[in-house]
Amino acid sequence: MKDARSILKKMLSNKEFIRILNDTANGLDTAVLIFDINGNMLADIGESGSESEAVSFPVNIKGEQAGYVKGNEKAAVIVSILTYMLAAEYDKRDLIDEVSGRYKEINLFYDFTEKILGCDSLKDIALLTLSLVKNFIKADTVSIMLKNDETNWIDVISAYDYDENTVKNSIVPFNGESIAEFVMLSGNAEIINDISLDGWTAPGGGKTGSMMCAPLKIKDKVIGALNIATENHTEFSSSDLKLFTTLSHNVGIFVENVKLYKDLKEIFISTVYTLAETIEMRDDYTGNHTKRVMEYSYAIGEVLGMEKDQLEALRLSAILHDIGKIGVRDDVLLKPGKLTDEEFALMKKHPVFGEDILKKIKGLEHIIPGVKHHHERHDGRGYPDGLKEDEIELNAKIISVADTFDAMTSDRPYRKGLDPKIAIDELIKCSGTQFDRKIVDAFIKAFPHIDMSKL
Questions:
Q1: pLDDT, tens digit, for every residue of 340-361?
Q2: What is the pLDDT of residues 394-446, one digit of tens each?
Q3: How far is it, in rounded angstroms, from Cα 407 to Cα 205?
Q4: Can you name the residues that pair with 41 across neighbouring β-strands?
Q5: Which of 32, 37, 215, 267 lies at a 20 to 30 A Cα distance from 196?
């Protein structure tokens, strides 16, 4: 037993321990020789130890022989001391390993909790879970399965880590054929070390050798399952399952939080959109203007490669870009003909009115620049602040293009809307003066893929 031999050798390299053994042997008026399991002498204890006419006494620990002692019958005392000290050292090392393992687990869950707070989607949670699980448990894939009680189908969010992390979604019927479904029904975690022998199928199919599944619970309700799998056969241990089950408990809590957050977010977006539509209803000729500007803006943002949170801010800015018109009198806002200079000056204040409204709403401060400056021009001749080029925030530049295109293509009391091709030509003509050229280019690239029938 390699560890036992190394522990015995290390113990006998301690001068204080050798002194104690020497004193004990001299007190017994005996001498002994100590060897490892391979016959290498490790220590000569007592006065003039000799192998002649000596008896061998094995030194065992945990049922395995670490070495042996040669001497007369009194050498049994030295063997007892060695055996006791070896057992104590072994227990000490076990304790250190356990503490170390616990420390790693604590670090894992601390790191997981800290990072998962930044997750706002199930895809992010799946990828984060996989990356952390792989530090402690062999795993090729991780999947989160959520049961839809209304449809009796299961939403599967799978994270893969072969060449790179990817995430895919699928839905499967709840028919009791997979081990994950069994876990959801029983509420108990399971290890399947050879899935082919147990007759189960893996969630979402694919090549699977071994799996661990644990239920995702909110209080006493099972909402789904967390699964990890390896392509090839693997022997998962009970300690692996214990760690994985603890992790699944944390995942369950945050999955529910993400679902609640998404519900609240949709309610908020719906409320904001309803507010924008209410303002829009003041003018019969601007029907669905908000929706179209939002869709055009979002499409531009995607072409520009904006991140998810940036696109969300852009969407809100586009929805609320005209909220300041609530402060414009009806006789000005709804006037069918040309505005007077005084009336146009009032109309030009609507971006500032929008800023004043949004300042009062906590959490919307970040979208104010997109709302306030969507009438600024690239050449600095816009309003309300006369900003130019890079002084204008990106969202404002995007909304400016989307808003102008919709204005040109929408019917008004005094004119017919332009054909989209003609409107795009106008955008190109005004690139570098009214609009940022790269925003116009992005809109031209995005426009063919926008489903106009839904707008």
A1: 889 889 999 999 999 998 888 8
A2: 999 999 999 999 999 987 766 788 999 999 999 999 999 999 999 999 999 99
A3: 50
A4: 35
A5: 215
Helix (H), strand (E) at residue 57: strand 55-61
Phi, psi angle pair for 143, to nearest 5°: -140, 145
Do 2-90 and 281-454 have matching folds? no
Judged on CB neighbours under 10 Å (0-12, 13-18, 19+), 334 is middle
Domain 2-90 has CATH 3.30.450: yes
Nearest-5° Cα angle at 382, 379 to 384: 140
Q: What is the pLDDT of residue 290?
A: 87
Q: Could you tell me the strand order of the sheet in which 165-173 lies?
A: 165-173, 153-161, 141-148, 221-230, 210-218, 190-192
DSSP 252-303: HHHHHHHHHHHHHHHHHHHHHHHHHHHHHTT-GGGTTHHHHHHHHHHHHHHH
Q: Which fold has domain 117-260?
A: Beta-Lactamase (3.30.450)
pTM: 0.54
CB 443 within 8 A of CB 430: no
Q: Helices 420-429 & 437-446, crossing angle to 10 degrees? A: 160
Per-domain boundaries in the chain:
2-90, 117-260, 281-454
CB–CB of 79/59 below 8 Å?
yes
For 391, what's the count of Cα atoms within 13 Å in the CB-facing half-sphere? Answer: 16
The alpha-carbon radius of gyration of the chain (Å, integer) is 37
